[in-house]
Amino acid sequence: MNTKSLIAAVVVLVILVIVYVSTTGDREDSQSDQATSSFESFKSLDEKAVDRITVERDDVKVELVRTEAGDNPKWELKSSFGYPADPERIDRLYEELEKIEDGEKVGSKAASHSRFEVDAESGAKISFFVGAEQKAAITLGKRANSRTLDSYSFVRFGDDAEVYKVDGEARSYIGAGGDKLEKDYTLLKELYEIPESNKVISAQLTYPDKTIMINRVDREKVIEEPKDPNKEETTEEGKIAVEEPSKEKKTEKVEEFHVTSGAETFKVEKDKEWDAKSYLNNHKSLRVKEAVEPKSFAEYGLDKPQLKVTLTSVSSGGDILATKVLFGNAIKDDKGEDTGYYVALEGQTPARIYSIEKYTITSWKKEVADFKPKPPEPEKKEDNPAIIPDGGKEGANTSSDAHEGHSHEGQVTASHILIPYKGADSAAADVTRTKEEAKKEAERILAEVKKEGSDFAKFAKDHSSCSSASDGGNLGSFSYGQMVKPFSEAAFEIKPGDISEIVETGFGFHIIKRTK
After folding, report:
1. 20 to 30 Å CA-CA from 77: which of 141, 216, 267, 455?
2. 140 and 201 part of one domain
3. Tens of pLDDT along 399-439?
4. Residue 68 β-bridge partners
5. Where are the beta strands (DSSP E) in 100-180?
6. Is 4 among the domain residues?
7. Dihedrals phi, psi of 288, to nearest 5 degrees
8. 422 and 352 together in one domain
9. How far apart, in whole angstroms, are the C-alpha atoms of residue 428 and residue 469?
10. In this model, does residue 26 exceed pLDDT 80?
11. Is the model more confident about 230 or about 381?
């Protein structure tokens, strides 16, 4: 055999080997999609019989225990001191798991597990128990790439090596969507919830040194009817109205808001009425962050709280409900900075203690001055261009230099548009949009207000859920520390006249326009 023939034979042999390896590999990873026994165990799982669920990822373990059966079962987070779990989140998880009926097998070797994030380190393993017996288990991996609106995930069943591509994205609904498993994701985050049909008639704010009462008062107001011009007589002195025979005056019910502190009591005037009204309307619930070990109240400063709020509400049947919220010590990080606060309900049995975000308490703390009209701003004198201020000296921090360095000194004047979502701090009870829907709405509005010639104030009046909406979103002037950190940073960073990108806080999504 000559050299050329030998080379040709070798090339053909190599090609045959490559084809063989590739086709056998394909056959291995594209074996029949017939479900394995572990897959079948998962599909035949009786949801109503399950009384314990564990979720494990890396070194974090969450354990849910069913406490009541039936069509509306109740669960508690055993791994979080036995505090109640959120039934809606568990229902949503089951809805996603029920989508897993069939699967496309994409791998059958353990070597592929890390690629699909169904390995022990990256995957989220959910195990379902009836009594002490484990009935099924599934390891949720990463979400599959898809150009359609449908959602897919990679999963593994039991201890099987096979990896499947399935419908749904259950991993996002168990708190494993991020870098680590959220241990309190399925925790019931509502510390309390006053029934929607109840009307909050008062709030008592008790501080260590003072008490402030906000009262909603219903009263009858006489409706002034316009005088009939035909019922007038002309005299030498002019026209006079002729008195009509006395008749019953028409009245209507109106709401007033009164504030009392110490010996001072006053009616809240129109420009501040919304502040009092929103305080009573928007505190029908309080959303917490995490569960805290239920030790004595004294350990968390809840025995002598920095603020105690008593909300009194009345049902349509006249039943009175008193809800007492206690705000304890600040929670500090390694640098000694406040990151949140301890909170609990007075009289709750068994006692449960939670943490809240730092900014949450700002909507609860109020002073008497917050319900009084703002004093008129002093008239500003015209700058004399002949006088050079100190800031104009060489080396001084001029306004442009301060902006480039994002100075937090002084004050800014700004307006904003707030788009809240269900569960956001101070969100009204009629807010039903999800966080994702709120963000999309904020992005839509941002695109509109950035168009040339758009009227920011009109968009605020039409779309903002803040009490400032009636004034075109105007928040007036404020210093850096007066607003929650993300809001302050954005407002001080942009130039006067500019509009920020979407800013997220605990209250929702903001679009900020700096005016000065």
Report:
1. 141
2. no
3. 333 344 455 677 889 999 999 998 888 788 778 889 988 99
4. 74
5. 104-107, 124-130, 133-143, 152-157, 163-167
6. no
7. -100, 175
8. no
9. 14
10. no
11. 230
For the entire predicted model, the pTM comes to 0.63
DSSP letter string, 45-75: --GGG--EEEEEETTEEEEEEEEE-SSS-EE
Q: Is 206 inside any structural domain?
A: yes
pLDDT band at residue 16 using 50, 70 and 90 as cut-offs: low
pLDDT digits (tens, 9 = 90+) for 380-405: 444 433 322 333 333 333 333 334 44
Question: Alpha-carbon dihedral of residues 445, 450, 453, 459, nearest 10 degrees?
Answer: 30
What is the distance between the alpha carbons of residues 330 and 255, in angstroms, rounded to a whole number?
36
Q: How many domains does the chain have?
A: 3
207 and 331: one domain?
Answer: yes
Average pLDDT, the chain: 83
Q: What residues make up the domain containing 329?
A: 192-224+251-369
Cα torsion 449, 452, 453, 456 to 10°: value is: 20
Nearest CA to 312 out of 204, 186, 402, 447 is that of 204
pLDDT at residue 261 greater than cutoff 90: yes
CB 18 within 8 A of CB 84: no
The answer to whether residue 61 is domain-embedded is: yes
CB proximity list for 339: less than 8 A, separation 6 or greater? 330, 331, 332, 333, 357, 358
**Residue 258, H or E segment:** strand 251-261
Residues 6+ apart with CB under 8 A from 477: 411, 412, 413, 516
Q: Six-digit token pair at 294?
A: 């239920």
The answer as to whether 13 is a domain residue is no
CA atoms of 50 and 68, how far apart (whole Å): 11
